[in-house]
Amino acid sequence: MYIKSPLNYTGGKFKILEPVFQAFPADIRTFVDVFAGGFNVGINVEAETIICNDQINYLIEMFQMFQATETGELLERIKGIISTYQLTQQNKDGYYALRSDYNRTGDLTKLFVLTCYAFNHQIRFNNSHEFNSPFGRNRSSFNSNIEKNLTQFCLALQKKNIQFTNRDFTELDYSKLGPEDLVYCDPPYLISTGNYNDGNRGFKDWKEKEERALLDLLDRMNQNGIRFALSNVFYHKGLSNELLIEWSRKYRIHYIDKTYSNCNYQFKERNAVTVEVLITNY
After folding, report:
1. Could you read off the pLDDT of 152-171 as tens digits, one per residue?
2. What is the DSSP string of 175-239?
3. 120-126: long-range contacts (C-beta < 8 A, 24 or more apart)?
4. Per CATH, which fold does 16-55+166-280 belong to?
5. Chain-wide mean pLDDT for the chain?
6. For 202-218, how does the pLDDT look when each residue is reduced to its tens digit (9 = 90+)?
7. CA 16 to chain centre
8. Residue of 69, 37, 30 whose CA lies nearest to 53
9. pTM of this structure
10. What is the Cα–Cα distance from 246 to 273, expressed in whole angstroms?
11. Is the Cβ–Cβ distance between 156 and 3 less than 8 Å?
């Protein structure tokens, strides 16, 4: 039974954890989740040490707060905020009052509550790093499922040996890693733009330059005997990532949907499908 992140983060891997973990090695000393996002993969990994990294400092700071706060106290604070702002699926004014107060104070518990009531639970910032997701009328709320996910997530954060870093992938120190470790990368996808990688959110965007830098970094890891696993897509909505397809031929390709594993990249309906892969060097 996998733990689900309480954050509905774009590109989250919860639904495909089984095939991803089937491709992971059984013995992992240090697991580095380079683009942690909602941290669905890292929180479920069995490893001696788990490093959770993301360039978005608010995510990392929120996870650190989850780790450092007794779960009962955290739930009390959340419910207090819901009560103070009279948050419901219909109270738009309460949501925007909370959003305004968060953008003024930077209170991390308020940020989490905002994600619960935001449209599609989206975490979105503007160039000034102000939270700007609209209200999720009649759809979003802090419900029993999110409470259960949050409780399990926090308990795992507090039980496992998880360390947090807030770095760009090019700035992380990989020098102490060796053949017993695993570096997992789930970067923004070059051929699909989420609101976290369009360059308009005050954080680094993701273009071909970043894609090439990551692939070069993984090649260097391979030369240094460090295991890696890269989540990505070959095809999406009629687009193909030729750079990735060509690079991947050097390594092992695991198709998340195994029906595409024998397609040899030449199937007729590829315009209509997303072909998701995990590329490993072991």
Report:
1. 999 999 999 999 999 999 99
2. TT--TT-EEEE-PPPTTS--TTSSS-SSS----HHHHHHHHHHHHHHHHTT-EEEEEEEEEETTE
3. 120/8, 121/7, 121/8, 122/8, 122/10, 122/195, 123/7, 123/9, 123/58, 123/59, 123/196, 124/195, 124/196, 124/201, 125/58, 125/201, 125/202, 125/203, 126/200, 126/201, 126/202
4. Rossmann fold (3.40.50)
5. 92
6. 567 899 999 999 999 99
7. 13
8. 37
9. 0.92
10. 19
11. yes
What residue ranges do the domains of the chain occupy? 16-55+166-280, 63-154
Give the 3-state secondary structure of residue 168.
Answer: coil
Residue 157's nearest CA partner among 71, 258, 231 is 71
Looking at this protein, which amino acid is placed at residue 29? R
The phi-psi region of residue 175 (left if phi > 0; otherwise alpha if psi is between -120 and 50; otherwise beta) is alpha
Beta bridge partners of 151: none
Rounded CA-CA distance 8/29 in Å is 28
Which tokens belong to 180? 């017993």
Q: Are strands 227-236 and 239-240 parallel, antiparallel or unpaired?
A: antiparallel
End-to-end, the C-alpha distance of the chain in Å comes to 26
d(CA 11, CA 18): 16
Regarding the domain delimited by 63-154, which CATH topology (the fold level of the hierarchy) does it fall under? Adenine-specific Methyltransferase; domain 2 (1.10.1020)
Place of tokens 């380079």: 34
